[in-house]
């Protein structure tokens, strides 16, 4: 027997209909809320995507593009081509740069010495690289140089400490009282060196002039005169400088290891000199005139960060011009003059005239002031032309601390940029007949210091602080050489890697002018 279905009352019908309506309202509400949320999220995503695309477009327009170029072989890049071009003789020493410049333009990318590099051969780009320091670029050097110079090197200094150190030393080296005093020391060193030259032997100029420049510079830095201490410093420095460009391998027997050991021995000598000077300064009540760089640094204890280690290390670094850059400039000046009889004749005539004036004037002794040498205009032109044609520092390396745009070129953060000074100096767009030694061109160009196409001493905050002293020493050397000897140079050529120098050290034979 089937059970009877439950009895549905009118009340039950009303309740059921009401419940269905409530459920329907809840479902509709949830649907509306869900729809609103979906619309909101969709709108938000669309807005964010649109803004992101706008930023990307702005970013691309603002940044420009990485210069064209090529990377070369894996790991070594184009290093072998770069090095090989450094051994190319005159008059085309820029084969690596010129070849890529013709293919990719004045600014191009490459991979050399283990780094991704943007190479600039353009004046305006180089100017920005040299002038902007710290906020855009920091110094960058091959690993062997970084290892050799160490963490306390002035090459790694930035910001306030570097500016103060640079200004302090630069101000001293440019000061008239130093020039007045050091002129006599330079003259003495030049005359002593030239007095050893005889007509019965080959004289290797590059070796000879190092005897002049190193002794003078050590005198300026630490007041170390002739004697065993100077000989020991020179011996250790010669060992130290050999590791400037080498494989960055630092274990016994390697070139870098030997150079670092030589530096350790030099640091001990320099530290002792500084400590002795510091002790003497404390014992004396009166303030004496600063006679060298050690006095300048000790007399201006403006920063507790400047430790004994930093002072010693940087004094050693400042010896480099006395062993490398300045002797090379002197040697190459002779090389160019040997092949330019008209320029040599004009130079000798100007310097002979000064010599006659000094010896014939009843109101003056035969002693020269530093202003006498710097007043020799054609001599200064010869120096400028020498530095233009054989720039001793052929390129300045920097590293971008952020993405940098210059004239539409992008230098990505972390990449190196090499501002090629030599390529600018030997560009026919900047100089007429750039491979011709022509000191007369500077009569038309005017003051070298104001010429953006002439940067042999770098630029910006890291402009060489000793540039005026270098010109003075070159002037004194050329004056006494051309008024004392005639010479004939043997065949030689300039090489450009790892640094600029003469292949055979420029052998010459001399004859005294009065003979």
TrEMBL record:
GO terms for molecular function: 22alpha-hydroxysteroid 23-monooxygenase activity; heme binding; iron ion binding; oxidoreductase activity, acting on paired donors, with incorporation or reduction of molecular oxygen, NAD(P)H as one donor, and incorporation of one atom of oxygen. Keywords: Brassinosteroid biosynthesis, Heme, Iron, Lipid biosynthesis, Lipid metabolism, Membrane, Metal-binding, Monooxygenase, Oxidoreductase, Steroid biosynthesis, Transmembrane, Transmembrane helix. GO terms for biological process: brassinosteroid biosynthetic process; brassinosteroid homeostasis; leaf development; petal development; stamen development; sterol metabolic process. It is a single-pass membrane protein. Pathway: Plant hormone biosynthesis; brassinosteroid biosynthesis; Hormone biosynthesis; Steroid biosynthesis. Its cofactor is heme. Its main location: endoplasmic reticulum. The keyword Aminoacyl-tRNA synthetase does not apply. Belongs to the cytochrome P450 family. This is 22alpha-hydroxysteroid 23-monooxygenase. It comes from Arachis duranensis. The gene is LOC107488015.
């Amino acid at each position: 027997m089937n059970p009877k279905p439950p009895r549905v009352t009118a009340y039950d019908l009303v309740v059921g209909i009401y419940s269905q309506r409530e459920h329907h309202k809840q479902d509709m509400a949830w649907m509306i809320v869900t729809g609103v949320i979906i619309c909101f999220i969709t709108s938000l995503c669309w807005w964010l995507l649109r803004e992101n695309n706008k930023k990307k477009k702005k970013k691309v327009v603002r940044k420009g593009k990485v210069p064209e170029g090529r990377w070369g072989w894996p790991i070594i890049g184009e290093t072998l081509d770069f090095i090989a071009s450094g051994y190319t003789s005159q008059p085309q020493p820029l084969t690596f740069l010129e070849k890529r410049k013709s293919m990719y333009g004045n600014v191009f990318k490459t991979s050399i010495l283990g780094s991704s590099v943007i190479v600039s051969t353009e004046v305006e780009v180089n100017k920005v690289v040299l002038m902007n320091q710290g906020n855009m670029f920091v110094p960058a050097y091959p690993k062997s140089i970084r290892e050799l110079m160490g963490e306390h090197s002035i090459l790694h200094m930035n910001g306030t400490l570097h500016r103060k150190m640079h200004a302090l030393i630069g101000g001293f080296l440019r000061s008239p009282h130093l020039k007045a005093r050091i002129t006599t020391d330079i003259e003495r060193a030049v005359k002593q060196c030239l007095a050893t030259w005889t007509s019965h032997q080959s004289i290797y100029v590059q070796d000879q002039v190092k005897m002049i420049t190193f002794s003078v510079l050590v005198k300026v830095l630490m007041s170390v005169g002739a004697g065993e201490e100077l000989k020991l410093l020179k011996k250790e420095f010669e060992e130290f400088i050999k590791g400037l460009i080498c494989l960055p391998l630092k274990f016994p027997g390697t070139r870098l290891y030997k150079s670092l050991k030589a530096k350790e021995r030099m640091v001990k000598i320099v530290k002792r000199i500084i400590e002795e000077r510091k002790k003497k300064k404390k014992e004396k009540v009166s303030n004496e005139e600063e006679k060298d760089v050690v006095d300048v640094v000790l007399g201006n204890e403006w920063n507790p960060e400047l430790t004994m280690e930093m002072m010693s290390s940087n004094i050693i670094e400042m010896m480099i011009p006395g062993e490398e850059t300045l002797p090379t400039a002197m040697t190459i000046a002779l090389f160019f003059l040997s092949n330019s009889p008209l320029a040599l004749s004009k130079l000798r005539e100007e310097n002979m005239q000064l010599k006659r004036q000094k010896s014939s004037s009843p109101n003056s002794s035969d002693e020269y002031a530093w202003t006498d040498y710097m007043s020799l205009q054609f001599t200064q032109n010869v120096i400028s032309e020498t530095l233009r044609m054989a720039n001793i520092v052929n390129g300045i390396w920097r590293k971008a601390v952020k993405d940098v745009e210059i004239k539409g070129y992008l230098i990505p953060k972390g990449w190196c940029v090499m501002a090629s000074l030599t390529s600018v100096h030997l560009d026919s767009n900047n100089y007429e007949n750039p491979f011709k030694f022509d000191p007369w061109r500077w009569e038309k160009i005017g003051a070298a210091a104001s010429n953006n196409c002439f940067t042999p001493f770098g630029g910006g905050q890291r402009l060489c602080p000793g540039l005026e002293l270098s010109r003075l020493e070159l002037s004194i050397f050329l004056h006494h050489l051309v008024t004392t000897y005639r010479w004939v140079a043997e065949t030689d050529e300039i090489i450009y890697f790892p640094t600029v120098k003469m292949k055979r050290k420029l052998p010459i034979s001399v004859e005294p002018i009065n003979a």
